[in-house]
User: Fold this.
Amino acid sequence: MMNVFGGKSIIVTGASRGIGRGIARNFAANGGRVMLAARNEADIHDAIEDITKAGGTARGVACDVGDWASVQRLIDETARAFGGVDVLCANAGTYPQTRIADMDPDEWDEVLRTNLKSNFLCVKACLPQFAKRPGGRVVLTSSITGPFTAFPGFAHYGASKAGQLGFMRVAAMELARHGATINAVLPGTVLTEGLAANGQAFLNSAAACIPLGRLGTVDDIANSVMFLASDFASYVTGQTIVVDGGQILPETGDAVGAI
Assistant:
């Protein structure tokens, strides 16, 4: 275990599975004290058990990231447990696939509540902590969908992910007074439990569209998140890193086959 984040207090939302769980695991493996936040307490418990068995430090809080009171409790409990908040990884997200013609307005509102409003709430709640401990870091999990690419059924998801970047750029200006930074990682297609459920044929087809010839892993995303949260990125703020194996680069559908 390395000690890059030794003594650091880190919050990861949406940490019970997928990319968030991988981010939390990697922070803990590098010395961070990690607070895992998600809605499902049983899944949080399983993720914490994995981290502690590997020698890491982790606790968990059931949290609805779209609810102001719930987010405030998350920040307060983290500060009590670990002495403050140094890093916020706003990773929680939802991605139901529904075409615009079939989409209920309530579904639109829920996706933006979970994916976008939650970023505002979490950053706002962390401001007093960052004021006390200069050098805070915020890393958002956005996506290539919305900022760069599109797929039918993800109008709400794409809007939320593009919206995160607009919020991030303004927040970078406002956080600077506290010496804090905020940046975003934009994953491409990443092999998570949810993606794997689509079957091997789907996974093979998805990988064939990526110049590097493979799907991303949760560790690929976590590595970029940790860079942005580390002292190595202390002069980087309001920026994005696309982590997609070159997925957004092909000009035509057959361009990858020409490599």
